[in-house]
Amino acid sequence: MMQENAQPPSAPNDLAPGEGESDAAGSFASYTAGLAFALLLTLASFVVSQTHLLWAPGVTAGLVVLAIAQMGVHLVFFLHIGTGSDNTNNVLALAFGVLIVTLVLSGSLWIMANLNSNMLPASAIMEMQR
To answer: I want to staple 10 with a disulfide (CB 3.0 to 4.6 A). Which of 14, 37, 52, 65 is the partner?
Structure first.
């Protein structure tokens, strides 16, 4: 006679997201280290922008580098995006989000540049209103 509540044995990799992860992924020390890195990078951004430590044309590049590092800290320490096999869906969702944001920003800039190049000069607009 078969049991009604019999469940098949689960495979070791048959876990829901967040189950069976090591404690290091979401530990207090991990979040504290992420906070320390984020604060350090934020402070470095303010120092770079408000002092003359970098050559003036290089300030923008320095801020871009610090911003990319800040995004990396947030992805690794707070969102726990890694290169493990269990993070494939997270990485794909992140890549899709980056693609959508890139398309929206580049499309908006393209439209604004096109409108700017096709706009009449202010003097011509004033002449049309007379």
So the answer is: 14
